[in-house]
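quick q for whoever's on today - can somebody do inverse folding on this one?? i tried earlier but teh output was garbage lol. tokens:
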């Protein structure tokens, strides 16, 4: 392999590595959590980096540059600066930051040096939001005259930014929101208040919000905590209700408890029949409404700054798929591009792109758009170990792959749930067929079995429906502005009025669904082609993992899931397996 460029993330949120070749193409990508099996692993991504170097035999001279997704000193000092303005209330945070200096991203230089001496000399740092922007740009067919909006919890010094992307070399920041005011951290604090894990449970709040009432008194109280000031063009947040900027452990203050009542106990499962369920749903609704309103205001403001109607949208807040339908309805929005991994884990891709653009002498005219399945995996590497497990705990129903798809469709028709562990893995947090649990999307019992029995998910969280484009048009209001987002399961859409889709078990209580539109060449497209023969045109699709665990990455992971939960069938590169348990 000729010259290559590596991108890294870690220390603060999910860590990952990405590899770009001398043509600007994404060659490989790994999230560290998939390899370590530690959910949200934020350690230095040594496992992913080791695999890349060994798999592609990357000699020292071939690696031209290693780019880290943020500026460590800025990221470390910014919270300290804010904390210093709030002494003595912030002394615990200051002490915590100083004690953990060596565990922060400042350690990146030393960790790379220890990993491979000399490689640290090739290390460069990238502005955090530029990493996000370049990740999104790589997934856009059009790479000129765009507006990039990045909204996250915190990155370097910004929590939101707007840039004009004239081209890949000319990206100008026009507006920013600085820490501690943060739309992302506001939503995370509400997530914490509702008893869900910060950085992991925000999607549960989004699902819970569908049960809430925007007109309720408590929803309005949450909504009014944060707003977009149309005069100053700033996000305004009443920081007296929050403590994430002064405490290492608490995200909200007692004042928020006085406003909203008792926080939810995280150790007690939340169910729709609980007496406090509606109250918590209304709180979630207020937070969701606030996020949607501010994002709409930001998109309108971004258009006034740039005059551009095609948007790149990234950062952790762009994972809020329920916000996109309303944003895309704005008159000044023609297209929204969201990368399949828009959070920090995906930023290693943008960092690697930055390294390529900065270090290469032969830049391609247009950066090639990556596949949705760039994480290379060859099942043959695990064949011997897998064979021992399979021979003891499974029966091979069919070894021919094409016949396995036919058999899988018959099993789905009978109401069974199929696990898939096929070929390359997906980039982002949403499984798109290669690392999935799949069943008939209209079979209530099958979807319930997938969602609450096998995965042990909260009953208020729906499963995503997957279908071909012509089927989607029969059931849902599709927005042309979001067509690219539907392919990576990044946006929800509304069911057509008085449509049978309103009764599908994959439809949320508010009449929406987070759909996936399958493309030719994808496994799930081939499955749909076969299940359509049984009048099954929608498949329920969820990631192949247990609640709280990372998505399965390799065959051994999938086999272990079947040993722990009643997952009877697994479609693999070696054929379809039936568990003996």
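ok took a stab at it. sequence:
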């Amino acid at each position: 392999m000729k010259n290559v460029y590596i991108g890294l993330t870690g220390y603060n949120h999910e860590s990952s590595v990405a590899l770009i070749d001398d043509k600007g193409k994404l060659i490989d990508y790994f999230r560290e959590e998939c390899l370590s099996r530690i959910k949200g692993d934020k350690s230095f991504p040594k496992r992913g980096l080791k695999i890349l170097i060994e798999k592609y035999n990357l000699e020292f001279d071939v690696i031209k540059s290693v780019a880290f997704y943020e500026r460590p000193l800025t990221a470390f000092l910014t919270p300290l600066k804010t904390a210093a303005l709030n002494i003595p209330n912030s002394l615990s945070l200051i002490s915590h930051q100083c004690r953990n200096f060596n565990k922060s991203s400042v350690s990146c230089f030393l960790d790379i040096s220890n990993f491979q001496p000399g490689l640290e000399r090739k290390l460069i740092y990238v502005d955090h939001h530029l990493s996000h922007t370049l990740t999104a740009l790589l997934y856009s067919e059009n790479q000129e005259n765009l507006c990039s909006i990045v909204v996250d919890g915190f990155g370097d010094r910004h929590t939101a930014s707007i840039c004009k992307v004239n081209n890949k070399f000319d990206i100008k920041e026009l507006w920013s929101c600085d820490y501690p005011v943060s739309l992302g951290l506001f939503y995370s604090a509400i997530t914490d208040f509702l008893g869900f894990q910060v950085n992991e449970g925000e999607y549960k709040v989004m699902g819970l919000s569908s049960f809430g009432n925007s007109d309720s008194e408590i929803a309005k109280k949450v909504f009014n905590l944060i707003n977009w000031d149309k005069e100053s063009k700033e996000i305004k947040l009443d920081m007296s209700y929050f403590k994430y900027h002064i405490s290492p452990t608490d995200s909200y203050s007692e004042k928020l408890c006085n406003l909203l009542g008792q926080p939810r106990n995280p150790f007690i499962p939340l169910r729709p029949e609980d007496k406090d369920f509606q109250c918590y749903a209304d709180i979630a609704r207020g937070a969701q409404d606030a996020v949607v309103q501010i994002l709409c205001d930001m998109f309108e403001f971004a258009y006034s700054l740039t005059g551009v109607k095609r948007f790149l949208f990234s950062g952790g807040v762009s994972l809020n798929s329920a916000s996109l339908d309303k944003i895309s309805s704005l008159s000044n929005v023609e297209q929204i591009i969201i990368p399949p991994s828009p959070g920090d884990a995906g930023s290693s891709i943008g960092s690697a792109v930055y390294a390529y653009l900065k270090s290469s002498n032969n830049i391609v005219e247009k950066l090639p758009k990556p596949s949705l399945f760039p994480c290379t995996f060859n099942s043959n590497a695990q064949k011997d170990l897998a064979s021992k497990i399979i021979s003891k705990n499974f029966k091979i129903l069919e070894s021919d792959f094409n016949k396995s798809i036919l058999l899988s469709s018959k099993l789905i028709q009978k109401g069974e749930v199929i696990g898939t562990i096929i070929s390359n893995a997906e980039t982002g947090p949403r499984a798109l067929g290669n690392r999935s649990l799949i069943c008939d999307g209209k079979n209530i019992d099958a979807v319930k079995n997938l969602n609450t029995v096998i995965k042990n998910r909260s009953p208020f969280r729906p499963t995503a429906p997957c279908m071909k484009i012509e089927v989607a048009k029969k059931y849902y209001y599709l927005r042309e502005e979001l067509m690219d987002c539907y392919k990576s399961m990044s946006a929800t859409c509304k069911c057509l009025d008085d449509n049978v889709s309103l009764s599908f078990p994959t439809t949320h209580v508010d009449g929406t669904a987070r759909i996936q539109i399958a493309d030719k060449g994808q496994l799930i497209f081939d499955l749909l082609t076969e299940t359509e023969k049984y009048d099954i045109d929608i498949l329920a699709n969820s990631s192949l993992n247990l609640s709280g665990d990372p998505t399965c990455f390799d065959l051994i992971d999938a086999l272990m899931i079947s040993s722990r939960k009643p997952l009877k069938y697994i479609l693999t590169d070696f054929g379809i397996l039936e568990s003996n348990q």
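fwiw The first strand starts at residue 4 and ends at 9. also The CA atoms of residues 261 and 318 lie 29 Å apart. so keep that in mind when u check it
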